Amino acid sequence: MISSPITTSVFDLFKVGPGPSSSHTIGPMKAAFDFRQRLAHLPTEIQQRADAIHVHLYGSLSATGKGHGTDRAVVAGLLGWQPETTDPVAMLKLLRDPAALYPVPVDEKTIEVGPQQIHFERVRYDSPYHNTMVIKLTSGEAVLSEEEYYSIGGGFIIRKNEPEISADAYSVPYPYSTMAELKAQLTANTISLDELLMANEMSLTGRDRAEVNQRIDQILDFMHKAVRRGLKQKGILPGSIKLSRKAPILFQQAKGMSQSSDSFLIFLNAYCLAASEENAAGGIVVTAPTSGASGVIPGLTFLAKHRFHYDKATMRAGMLAAAMIGFLVKHNASISGAEMGCMGEIGTASAMGAAFLTRCTQAKADIGPIEAAAEIGIEHHLGMTCDPIGGYVQIPCIERNAMGAVKAYNAFLLATSGAASFQKISLDAVVKVMKATGRDMSTKYKETSEAGLALSATEC
């Protein structure tokens, strides 16, 4: 009996939305939208008394929220915007005028929200998660309604005191919570990895096989659109760093070196930078598993499609394998940079990318090399800090996506060298180490811009 099985959908892990950060942009937008929805269900008496809405940001949301656009995301959510349908150009215009106010409907009136109602709190807040936001509906000094939300990475949010949904509500035919349990299910049921993951996904979402496949294709299309846009866009990224886009330059360089052995890596770097630069610019990307790591898998899948010419069925199988690795890390550690440092974001993305590549090269899914590739991907990101300069998802984040993809490719090569069975460290073991490392890591190195490269801001 699996006590706490994984019940995350592929489409919860791979979410479409605006950059630059799933935990600082998509999560707060969803939380603010949820609060807006709850306002409509308050007693009329409370609605009529209300005269203000205040948003209090704590932890990493406060420390780096400005650079991540958290304030804009909160306003967007209160306005009723949702991540997948948000116009990134319109979102970048929010709060550009510090005097601007935005109407939020409450009963038959509107309450205006502006920069003065969004508070970047620097005090320590007693919370189980680093990314905490508290939204209050007030009347003068009186608090009429209050909700506390936690943005736990990848755009996932938790509302404080929200009733836990029983495992029965999200039952899956093949429950597992660890890689060991997954392998036991494969053996006990004589089922392939592809079929197991597909069966669970259909059960979770209510979609049939064709619908799941169509949605995976759409997710890949969103990823590749971000790559294509990034390969064409030139100029300076938003923010005080004034960082120039590099992807178009690398892409042109790679095309001019088609006969060189280095062109392969330059193409891969260009694809990853392209998607990451689009994320940094606030464009529409796919959390993979986070927005900060949204260049790794798009870059690798773009390469797989256009260089290796894998068909749709192969790409889908690879994406399911990648998602499975993301599930295991999220369930047993965390994919949040504020919780795990960058090993939670790029480390997980690299492991997912390695699993994707490994599955794509197999005629039939062999869990051994897939596990080995993912384990190698995580192992060589252990302890990686999250220290963005100025709170922007630019330095070191953009290049780090390219490096994560290269490591993923090498992990795939190592795992498929014929020696996967010699691997001494299991995926479950390395995820436990990852969790312990994140717990031991100084908060300064976990998305606060208080240490590491972030202190080089004066040199930029």
UniProtKB/TrEMBL annotation:
Q: Name what cofactor the protein needs.
A: [4Fe-4S] cluster
The entry's keywords: 4Fe-4S, Gluconeogenesis, Iron, Iron-sulfur, Lyase, Metal-binding
Supply one GO BP term.
Answer: gluconeogenesis
Q: Name one Pfam family in it.
A: SDH_beta
Pathway assignment reads: Carbohydrate biosynthesis; gluconeogenesis
The record's annotation in InterPro entries points to:
ASB_dom_sf, Fe-S_L-Ser, Fe-S_L-Ser_mono, Ser_deHydtase-like_asu, Ser_deHydtase_bsu
Q: Which residues form the Serine dehydratase beta chain domain?
A: 9-161
One MF term in GO for this entry?
L-serine ammonia-lyase activity
The reaction(s) annotated as catalysed by this protein in its Swiss-Prot or TrEMBL entry are:
L-serine = pyruvate + NH4(+)
Q: Which EC numbers characterise this protein's activity in its record? A: 4.3.1.17
Q: Where is the Serine dehydratase-like alpha subunit domain?
A: 191-454
Task: Give the UniProt family note.
Answer: Belongs to the iron-sulfur dependent L-serine dehydratase family.
The record's NCBIfam families line, in alphabetical order, gives:
sda_mono (TIGR00720)
Q: Which PANTHER family match?
A: L-SERINE DEHYDRATASE, L-SERINE DEHYDRATASE 1
What is the name of this protein? L-serine dehydratase
